[in-house]
């Protein structure tokens, strides 16, 4: 029982890593007042760029670089439309999602002629799992050994990075001058402007960070969790991350737990399949599959209370003229 | 030879005045023609036909379920015939369109439609799955094998049921873990979920996993490679995807089904009705090539061949899940 639980938590870490990265990316953007429904597109774009880069240059790190570049580029398009030209954030975000969904497949058909996939990656072109020191030596120690060797060790480096980003984000948002300005820009841009700080510049910087984080999430999907790009491989993770962001009320630590909950329900769904439960018998796949969504709705409706976003979110900033 | 050619040309000319020109077409399912599995098998048949006959086959890849019927209808309106449609999920769409275009020949793979202008090609997947299940149990050191299905439909359960019977035939104490990826067509193209399901089965003790899940299988094979376990491919010969990890593939000759449809239509011998292809007809089989030769010992090979011939001769009866929707045998 204990072992099963550990193995489920182990799967939870793998599944929730991209969610955490994407949700934190959304946190930076939304805290600065930019609605980012384009997380999905950025993840997908980065997944493709990372897989393509890794396939051509044979290095996962170069792939990661390409992924981040692609994602930041998309974030900058979003910024150019929403910040500089004061466009509608949702429209711009949806446009990015749609363009990327088509563009990735078209480009990969043209470059690799494999019907919208990239070549299968192996060896150095992938982020392989890292075994933490003493993991094998400690494996036989009861309780702690299992937790350390199964749960904590044996993930790839991007998983650890995703979890490290949570305290880092907490620190950046709440403990730094940039974080203070970022939050202020999302709540009351006029006040920030009065203080002599450029609202646009702060928002652009928030979007760059958002791009980098989505880039890592995308690279994780195609070069770490899987071995290559497949069309639509982001499979709604960007939207899930957005839900987790709202669920976590735009705060780093609650967002982490929201992502872990989604990941855990996914892992649970996989585990529960085909298992006989006393008194009920075998639970059908469909019932298990629907569980994460039902729980999300219940929790959102009943338990977490009102989720209030940043005040100035979605509104383009216009300087008042005398 | 020349006479035959001229004769067939005239025949073609006559038939083209009656119906429209013999323009073959194919509609793949949502996983796309390069899923390295089911659709790609059909694509290989299409390629072979085009290479031999120099006749281009019009291809259509729907992006969502709603496009299937539209695509079929458009192809039929433009006079394409025969139209091969790939996959169980298209059954109702093909049925509707086939009723509206009685002059167009349709072939559906994996589905059954009772109409005078539809040929339904179905396979005895349970027989092929039995064979690879037996091989899986022989290769397993933990006496536990896994099965990852795509969409939860009777057709996929038929794979799982045959596999289970094969594994239990070799080792009656074997544990067979079974998982389905999902309950929509998208379950055939979700490698991330596939890899998680496989890892979950490995952690429960399985060391050979059979994926009957189209594109989802790619994630399953990757997981098997990462953890040093064995995997079994499906539909196409997938042994080349992860050499050294792929124990074998349960080959379903969908390429032959597509090719035969085009060839028969060209020759005028195409017939409607149900075509059932099993081990005896060469419609399903297990794959042995350079990529997995080192994994299959001579002893295993002999045993598998023995089981194979026993199924063909009827000494082993493989229960078909779809005959009574249960897997009791």
From TrEMBL, chain A:
Superkingdom in the source lineage: Bacteria
Coiled-coil zones: none
Membrane topology: Multi-pass membrane protein
Keyword terms: Cell membrane, Membrane, Transmembrane, Transmembrane helix
Protein name: ABC transporter permease
Transmembrane segments: 47-77, 89-107, 157-174, 206-229, 250-270
Entry's localization field: Cell inner membrane
InterPro entries: ABC_transp_permease (IPR001851)
Pfam families: BPD_transp_2 (PF02653)
UniProtKB/TrEMBL annotation, chain B:
Gene3D superfamilies found in the cross-reference section: 3.40.50.2300
Pfam family, one: Bmp
Keyword terms, alphabetized: Cell membrane, Lipoprotein, Membrane, Signal
Membrane topology, record value: Lipid-anchor
Annotated signal sequence range: 1-21
Database matches in SUPFAM superfamilies: Periplasmic binding protein-like I
Boundaries of every ABC transporter substrate-binding protein PnrA-like domain copy: 26-319
Protein location: Cell membrane
Annotated family: Belongs to the BMP lipoprotein family.
This protein's name: BMP family ABC transporter substrate-binding protein
